[in-house]
Each structure stands twice: as C-alpha cells, then as structure tokens.
Amino acid sequence: MYLFSPLIPEVRRTLEELPRLIDQVFPLPRRFRVNLPRDVAELSRLLTRSRGERTNAYLSTKGLLSAYLRYFLPWNCYRLCRLLPGLPLRFTAGEGITDLGSGPLTLVLALWIARPDLRPLPLEFRCLDRSAAALDAGKGLFHALAGASPWMIKTIHAPMGAPIYGPKARLVSALQVFNERFEGIPQADTRALQQAADKTSRLLSSLVTASGSILVLEPGVPWSGEWIAALRKALLTRGQKSYTPCPHQGVCPCPGGKAKWCHFTFDTEDAPSVLHTLSTAAGLPKERAAVSFLLTGPAGKKQEFPQEEEQTLPVRILSDRFPVPYRSKMQEGDQNQYGRYGCSARGLVLVIEQGSKHSTKSGELVMLTLGSPEKRDPKTGALIAEIPRVAVKPPKRG
C-alpha cells in the first residue's frame, strides 16, 4: 500500500482550477502581480531561514497573505490531496472536525477536493487561527469552490489553546502549526521538546471524541520528524493508537536528533502547471514534496495493518534509494543493488532491492521476509531484509 497515490482525474482538474478561482475571489491588480514572485520568495524566507523576523500575525499583512493564498495554499492543498484519500477517515452526518491553526482553511478546502464522497454529508468544521484575515479569506474561497455546501464552517479568531465550545470532534487536526509554535526549542533539548509534546497531547486529546482521530502534519524536515516522534510518544501514553504511517505501536525507531527522522517524499509531476511556473519564477522549484505526519485514534480499534508473523515483517518505507555494498543472494550478474530504510516493530530496517525491477516508494507498506540467520547493517544496526515482497491490502477507511 502506498500513502501518496497519484491524483484521480477529478481531483487533479479541481486543483488545476484552484489558482484561477483564487484570482477570481481575490483579484490582484497588475502592478502587484509583477511583484508576486518576489513576495512569495520573501514569505518563504520568513518561514524558513529568517523565522525570527516573522510576526505572529504575518498572514494579516496584505502582501504576505496574497503570496500565501497564491503559492503556499495551493501547494499545501496539493500535498494533502495526495495524502488524504489514503487515510482511514470516515465521518457520519452531523459530526465535527476541529482544525487548529487553520490559516485560510487549508484542510477544509483539501478535504472537499480530495474526498468527493464527503461533499453531500452535513459536517461541522471549527477552524481556529490567530489571523482573522486568513480565516475570512479561506471562508470566502470555500464558498466559491463548494457553492451551496451542507458543510457548516465556524471560524474562531483566537490563539492555540483558546476554548472551543460545542461537542468534541470526530477529527482534530493541526497542520503545519507546531513548527512555528515550538521552533525556538533547541534540537538538543529533548526534555523541553517532550514537555511541549506532552502539553500538546493533552490539548489535542481534550478536543477529540472517544472514537475520534488526531491528525498532525508538518514539513518534512528533521526538526518536524523529531517533533512528530515526541508527540506520538505522548499520545500513546494517553490511550491513543498510532494508525499511520507507523506499522506498529512500539518505540519509534526514527526519533530524529542524531538518529534518522520520519518523513516521506513524493514527486510533484501532477501538481498544477501554474504552480510550477510561479515556483520557478520565485526561485523555489518544487520537483518533490516532503512531509512528516501522524494519524492516531482510539486504542480499542482493530489493528489496520497485518501482524508480524514468523520470519515476515510489515515495514513502512521511509527513505529514498541509495546504493548498498552488500552481496545479496538474489543479486544477478553485475546488476546494481539499492537500499531504503524502513520502520517496523523490530526497529529500523534496511530494505535491499535489486536494480529497478522491484522499486519501492517512500511511504509504501510492504511485507518482507527476514533472512536466517538475521543480518544487521554495521553502520546503523538496522535489520537487513530483501525484496521480493508479499502484497499488502490497503486498510479500509474507518
């Protein structure tokens, strides 16, 4: 099973139309459009290299909000549209979704685009953000996109942790929020990071129903992987269960820091062409996307993925391919041999495959057979397993 399946035609068409719809709802005078690539590059600088210069209400600045709506919002929707269809999320009429740090309602827009089956369902969204301008922009864009939708959108202009009134939510989400909130914590200060994760887990758990799920997604950078691992540990101690991407409930073998960190990459060839054009103009070409994320749910739910059996192991592929020097029993002639790291209940796994014949992808779940006797990578201590593999059925949404 692959987490980031290609877009289906309907979703791709809607994403292609999204930039034009943004221009329609938020017209940009020609004299300002000339500066759009510059504004996108400036906002990217504030979000990455120069975070100390960014104010808490940066999306309330017109130029930065325009750059966010025309560049970051469509790219974030694209990433989510690649991920959301593969997540086990199911809703019934009247249930609620609480989205923290909503910005211009990115999750709402992406869920409507990526899950056409949910569009006729009456759902209530409670979207909290400290930027009223971003919330209002997202609400206007959603109504232009969805028309007379049965979805009820309630925006809450408030900081993280403010009271959210009403019933608890079936899904609580926080997408690309915590990298801004806790970016001041030094990577070496694992104690402070875990304390922040414990506090965050209390907040998220307080907002979700007993049968609900929690979705957290961050940029695919080392600090985010470390944060996701710390939050996963905290949520598991509160009775949550890791649904995906983890194929197990044990200790995370990719906690970040000096160790490997959990993230996934995928190609962006099917992203809207206008986005690629703007990215190039801003000096920010995007041939690939990277994310770190976690979906948890109630611990009593039946395991979604196959269990480890004798000599076989479910493994979630993490890394890109790289050459490996090991001589494999399946190696033929002078064919090259490659490896990818993966996550399993037995810890880190070095998955070896030969040439491109059995090429796996970052985010794929595979069942692998361990050798006898077991071998370990001398560099990382990871178990060594080889393709071929046994096909894994995707989990049902629920």
What would you say about this model in short?
This protein is 32% helix and 24% strand. By secondary structure, it is α/β, with parallel strands linked by helices.
Secondary structure: elements and pairs:
Blueprint: H1 9-25, H2 30-33, H3 36-47, H4 62-83, E1 96-100, H5 106-114, E2 124-129, H6 132-146, E3 152-157, E4 169-175, H7 178-181, H8 190-207, E5 208-219, H9 222-237, E6 240-244, E7 264-267, H10 273-281, E8 288-298, E9 312-317, E10 322-323, E11 337-344, E12 347-354, E13 365-370, E14 383-390
Parallel strand pairs: 1-2, 1-4, 2-3, 4-5, 12-14
Antiparallel strand pairs: 5-8, 6-8, 7-8, 9-11, 9-13, 10-11, 11-12, 13-14
Kindly describe this structure.
With 398 residues, the protein is an alpha/beta fold. It has 2 domains: 9-298, 3-Layer(aba) Sandwich (Rossmann fold), CATH 3.40.50; 312-390, OB fold (Dihydrolipoamide Acetyltransferase, E2P), CATH 2.40.50. 32% of the residues lie in helices and 24% in strands. It has 10 helices and 14 strands. It has helices spanning 9-25, 30-33, 36-47, 62-83, 106-114, 132-146, 178-181, 190-207, 222-237, 273-281, and strands spanning 96-100, 124-129, 152-157, 169-175, 208-219, 240-244, 264-267, 288-298, 312-317, 322-323, 337-344, 347-354, 365-370, 383-390. The strands form 2 sheets. Strands 1, 2, 3, 4, 5, 6, 7 and 8 form an 8-stranded mixed β-sheet that branches. Strands 9-11-12-14-13 form a 5-stranded mixed beta barrel. α6 (132-146) links the parallel β2 and β3 (152-157). α5 (106-114) runs parallel beside α6 (132-146). It is globular. It starts with 8 loop residues before the first helix and ends in an 8-residue tail after the last strand.
